[in-house]
Amino acid sequence: MHxxxxxxxxxxxxxxxxxxxxAETPLKLAIIEAAQEPxxxxxxxxxxxVSALSEASRQLLERLGAWSAMEKLRVNPYQGMYVWDSEGTxxxxxxxxxxxxEDLGYLxxxxxxxxxxxxxxxxxxxxxxxxxxxxxxxxPALDAGGTRELTLTDGTRLTASLVVAADGAHSWLRxxxxxxxxxxxxNHHALVTSVRMEKSHQDAAxxxxxxxxxxxFLPLKPxxxxxxxxxxxxxxxxxxxxxxxxxxxxxxxxxxxxxxxRLGQVLESQERGVFPLRQRHAVDYVKPGxxxxxxxxxxxHPLAGQGVNLGFLDVQALTRVVAAAATKGQPLGSLAVLKxxxxxxxxxxxxxxxxMESFKRLFATRQLPLLLVRNLGMKLVNSQPxxxxxxxxxALGIRALAKS
Length: 404
Known about the structure:
nine-stranded mixed beta sheet; alpha+beta; 30% strand; FAD/NAD(P)-binding domain
């Protein structure tokens, strides 16, 4: 029997960030990770999965000691954003300089973020890894403090005051812990890949909204080449599978046409992947001895790239709650402790999810009155610098900017 204070299921971005955030505490930590080896990264191969990190996320990763390692691999700051409606004449342009910031955000391959965090925790004295295995059995709470016992697929048994789910959208712990969710399909799949364009992306993110779903070109710079973009194309499941099955030349032509040739022709495209999109939110984030965070607690549409940033905000809140409880000698798994985390994060996550759902529905409509409202709204936003500053502040996660 291995005894810990806190066990993290999942060694991805949020799980590693929580471990790194608790490095200076006296707590005994464990990570259970199914993968035997960490992700591989090659300079010449762009990761299919890319996240748009906010300034708040960058600051967290810097505090955790991961950002410098990430910069040595590949980080892509961007200063501009262009958004337009395919069924109207309206467009919105955001520039970092207009909001008084250096960058609007950072496009980073998920493998780079994970490797940076692995570098941050590699010598962490209070952390034990259980690699190449999965949890198989979860006990009920064993005492008033919520202590749980886990049995792994290799027969190893562990106990902890708190077990945290950082195991993604299809969380084993969420299911085994009996957490209820509210969820529905978007009836969209996201096709993702990386492409080389005829023209420079100008260090800007480009997004076209269509009734079938948004299409985003996100700037990457492998070896300083500013013609590469990460693509997230949200469309019907049928079209997504059709696009995935096309040969490279045919796919490049379809993508050029769908993007209205804004960056010229698509000259080259890498391997394509297709992922179903589903909105999911846990009714509760906590139970005695258990806590959900990141995609295990909530998943949203990727149209604004806020999913991973919400996960890192979860990490910050849970880190503070756990560290404070450890200082006071309180049981980490007690509901009295864990409800503070839920109260901090659930309202903000619900608000962001509602906002993204509203955007998704607004841009999916073909009704003429709503099309006119949408067009007028985009024109209003583009003409009012103070509105754009507040929208930028929301995306960056910086409250001070919103008040300027």
